[in-house]
Amino acid sequence: MELILILGCVYPLEDTKLEDKKFCECGCGAEINQTKRFKHGHYVKLNPRKADNSNFWTGGRRKDSSGYVLIHSPAHPSATKAGYVCEHRLVMEKHLGRYLTEDEHIHHINQNPKDNRLENLKIMSNSEHIRFHRTEELKRGINRFTYNK
Asked: pLDDT by residue (tens digit) across 16-71?
């Protein structure tokens, strides 16, 4: 029996009808449905930066609902499932030369979540950050723990 090699796959010659077979266009050699161009997931392998050409791609920079700037960095250890990390954390990590721990919080001195200049950022532990904001609330007369009867 004679064999034929088509895009990395070996087929018996008598069973091969090239006009009846269609192969994934990424070059992997996988046989696919006649109506498809790629095996499922293979288009992204071939074009990993397809989002760059989208009219909606903002270069991996967006804001969350609280106004914090998020940067697309899927390889970062504290990235969200969507692959985003808060910009203020990245700025502080670059300054420190290491990743921040889960207990380290970055405080915006001027209370503006969009202002991520290093001179506006201060690193605090979780408890320090809560204490700081609680003290500020009390100075302004906000008491979240007063119950009206």
From this structure: 455 567 777 666 667 777 777 776 665 554 454 555 566 666 668 888 888 999 99
Domain boundary pick from 26, 48, 70 = 48
Roughly how many angstroms between the first and final C-alpha of the chain, as a whole number? 92
Strands of the chain (E only): list them.
3-6, 9-12, 22-23, 31-32, 61-63, 69-72, 84-86, 104-108, 121-125
Residues 63, 117 share a domain = yes
- Specify whether the CB–CB gap between 129 and 148 falls below 8 A: no
This prediction has a pTM of: 0.57
Q: Are residues 32 and 77 in the same domain?
A: no
Cα distance between residue 51 and residue 20, in whole Å: 34
As a residue count, the chain comes to 149
> Are residue 95 and residue 41 in the same domain, yes or no?
no
| Residues 132 and 60 reside in one and the same domain | yes
CA-to-CA separations, 110 to 22, 74, 80, 118, 135, in angstroms, rounded: 61, 29, 26, 12, 16
Query: Which DSSP symbol is given to 111?
Result: S
Q: Which domain holds residue 121?
A: 52-139
